[in-house]
Amino acid sequence: MEKITIDEIELETLVAENQISFDFEGLSQKEESISLTETLIKPLNHDYIKEEVLFVVVKAKNNEVAKDLPNLKLCGKKMIDWVLLAGSSCEQMVMEDYEDIIGKVRQINTDKKYIALFYSDTPLFDKSSFFKIMDYFASKSMNFLQLSRGFIVKTEFLKNSPNFISSATGGNEIPSLLRCDSSAKLVEAYETLNERIVGYHIRNGVTIFGKNTVFIDADVEIDGGVIIYPNNILQGESVISGGTILESGNIIDNSIILNDCVVKASYIKNSKITNGKTIENGSKIISEVI
């Protein structure tokens, strides 16, 4: 096992028979990592990933962390949906977990050159990390790369190497492949995703005070020029339009707040607030248009 490093990602390359292994020397491309559909990174040329990779996500088996872990949402999305976003540019496939995962993958009928397999309990895995791994794998002509929660394999190598066996667990540790198998890791994943989302909106011109106390689901849309004070929760597919001020203490769920509104310590669900309205402290608005 040879330990190698790319930026902050540490990998140990598993060398299988007939596999060519290299270090990461010379690979220094850095790309911003944002796990939102609206902010897909724009590489110089990653067309080959779209054309040549089958992106497989395995439904991780339930564990004791949460009663219904597969359906548990982090920042408005199930964990498997976050992982699927990382490979959204590729043909995708979701499959159940099996003891012999390599054997099941061998049975997949695909004309793609590569198969990239990841697990649904790694919601921090993002497009930037995926592209970096694929660039390394493809440019160095590797046949197989073992990851802590998945692997990359050349399809021809997999189909033509019947004696090739892998557990598909252990191996290369990558921070974005954090497995959420404890309460502490679930909290870490949630906080990291929320930090990414809040940072995305700040870069788009939203003023957010006390950003560690503002929680925004992934599908919330916020126009530039909105001001958000501490202790706000924005959920579902809410839309917050330009010029609006959200004072402290609001919960806004699946609602539309139009331009130049002021909302003060209120609960708003499945509702629409029209232009220029002021919603006073303690208001509870459910399924209304105001």
Strand-helix topology:
Blueprint lengths: L1 E5 L2 E5 L33 H6 E7 L13 E2 L2 E2 H8 L4 E6 L4 H6 L7 E6 L7 H13 L4 E4 L2 E5 H5 L23 H21 L3 E2 L5 E3 L4 E2 L4 E2 L3 E4 L3 E2 L4 E2 L4 E3 L2 E2 L4 E2 L3 E3 L2 E2 L4 E2 L4 E3 L4
Parallel strand pairs: 3-6, 3-7, 10-13, 11-14, 12-15, 13-16, 14-17, 15-18, 16-19, 17-20, 18-21, 19-22, 20-23
Antiparallel strand pairs: 1-2, 4-5, 7-9, 8-9
In short:
The chain is of the alpha/beta class and 290 residues long. The chain is built from six helices and 23 strands.
Task: Describe this entry's structure for a reader.
The structure is a single chain. The chain is built from 6 helices and 23 strands. It is of the alpha/beta class and 290 residues long. The protein has a 5-stranded mixed beta sheet. The radius of gyration is 22 Å and the shape is elongated. 34% of the residues are buried.
What is the helix tally? 6
User: What is the structural class?
Assistant: alpha/beta
- Write out the strand line-up for the largest beta sheet, numbering strands in chain order: 6-3-7-9-8
Mean pLDDT: 84
Report the sheet-strand fraction. Answer: 25-35%
Distance between the termini: 64 Å
Give the strand tally: 23
Shape: elongated
Computed CA radius of gyration, to the nearest angstrom: 22 Å
The main sheet comes to: 5 strands, mixed
Helix content: 10-25%
